[in-house]
Design goal:
- By secondary structure, the protein is an all-alpha fold.
- It has 16 helices and no strands.
- α4 packs across α6 and α8 packs antiparallel against α9.
- The mean pLDDT is 91.
Length: 284
């Protein structure tokens, strides 16, 4: 590909507007998650508790903004100040839960449509991570940790807000906390945040910013489509296991287990000393 054409493509992707189509895709995936999480009880719950269903859906859709505003000391309710976004999210929620014969839900769950919508959600995820890093850098220009945290929660806010979102539906699941078992979106958001910070704050990356942004978007798209097509979920797990074995006590725990196992075996099977031949003759 011609470098100028590639750079123009990267600039187009980095400046792409997210409203309304990408915002709609994000809202659709969020509402589908709520409905799938309710499983067989989704129909009854949506009819019996519509307000609770709407609140939990809004928390899931705007989770990144809610959590980042809370951490940065900004008004939490600011995420709802754009009435167009709220109306779009509410319309998507209504169509996913209350469309006649569940036609909208079934269309969105149809594999080719779901792949397109999921890909659009990954594009807006990258945009949210980038905006989170930029907004945090304006308030805390010398804190790379805060930039990483805000970029991560903006990229996967629904994962961190899962406990509260479920609580709005009357379900308390403290074991579902994202830090206990981080999912791939959280790990990928951490990596993307670090890349954006290095690109913004250092001279280590010499390529234009739009190329870096396009590379991050391509990374998210590749693994999301791979997870839908070939069931590839978390490529970080092998590296995590190796890191834990080397630096988180895994090797030493294995040695300690071998030593304790050897000692226990010796205690259960004590050595029996056989008298030597000379000793026997002396006794005779």
């Amino acid at each position: 590909m011609d470098p100028d054409v590639f750079l123009e493509l990267a600039n187009t992707v980095s400046k792409m507007k997210m409203f309304p189509y990408f915002e709609m895709a994000h809202a659709i995936i969020s509402c589908i998650y709520i409905r799938d999480d309710l499983a067989a009880g989704s129909h009854q719950f949506s009819r019996k508790h519509p307000f609770s269903c709407w609140v939990s859906s809004m928390i899931n859709i705007f989770a990144g903004g809610l959590l980042s505003n809370f951490l940065l000391g900004e008004p939490i309710i600011d995420v709802f100040k754009n009435h167009n976004q709220v109306m779009l999210a509410s319309a998507v929620w209504y169509m996913i839960f209350y469309s006649p014969f569940d036609i909208i839900y079934k269309i969105c769950k149809f594999a080719p449509i779901k792949i397109v919508i999921s890909a659009m959600k990954e594009v807006i995820r990258c945009k949210k991570i980038h905006d989170g890093v930029v907004s945090a850098s304006k308030i805390y220009p010398n804190s790379y940790l805060i930039m990483t945290i805000i970029g991560t929660v903006k990229g996967n806010g629904s994962g961190f807000m899962k406990i509260i979102e479920r609580l709005m539906r009357g379900i308390w699941t403290p074991n579902a906390f994202e830090l206990l078992t981080p999912t791939f979106p959280t790990k990928a958001a951490i990596g993307a945040s670090i890349i954006f910070i290095v690109d913004k704050k250092t001279d280590w990356i010499s390529v234009p910013h739009s190329i870096v942004y396009l590379g991050v978007v391509s990374f998210f798209l590749y693994f999301k489509i791979s997870s839908l097509l070939i069931n590839l979920h978390d490529p970080f797990i092998p590296f995590e296991n190796l890191f834990c074995q080397l630096f988180m006590g895994g090797v030493w725990d294995a040695f300690a287990h071998i030593i304790s196992k050897t000692k226990k075996k010796e205690e259960n099977n004590p050595k029996v000393e056989i008298p030597r031949r000379e000793d026997k003759t002396r006794k005779d």
